[in-house]
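To: structure desk
From: M.T.
Subject: fold request, one chain
Message: Could you run this one when you get a chance? Sequence is below, nothing fancy, just the single chain.
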Amino acid sequence: MENRKQMIKTERLFLSEMTLADKEILFGYWSDDSVTRYMNIEPFQSLQPVEEMIRMLRQLEIEGKALRCVIILQATGEIIGTCGFNYIDHENQRAEIAYDLGTRFWKRGYATEAVQALMKWGIESFKLHRMEAKVDPRNEASISLLQKLGFQEEGLLRDYEKIGTEFQDLKLFSWLNK
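Reply: Done. Structure tokens follow.
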């Protein structure tokens, strides 16, 4: 693994800081409609928006407002996706979890392993009481993952996000540290 700040180590993964050096591999994932179908972005068409996204996420991290990591396979050093907190509300001890994986890495338990580690880190490092996830109602794999980790569905956010020209409903899930 090149020179990057490692944040979390799990049985099979590293969660590490995202850098501009990751732009090409992330472009490969974020330009794939299978990956972005349920994300709040259109598939990227060039490297420029990927660079802009990485810079924005890094700035939000510096400001303490969000955090996004790359997910790296320990065995190969390959970046397989990203995960993190889309926002962190320190005052109310809550954050929104988000994650994505390249299609080659689906259905192997990597997302579950990464999100579990992220949740533990959120509790230990940010003293989070509540973690949220907003999910496209058609994203059965993500809903299943969240339910497996103890998230509860709170309701439907109607026409919550505009993706391209279409408004999209999202389901709100939450997990409480009690």
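Reply (cont.): The chain is about 30% helix and 35% strand. Let me know if you need anything else for the meeting.
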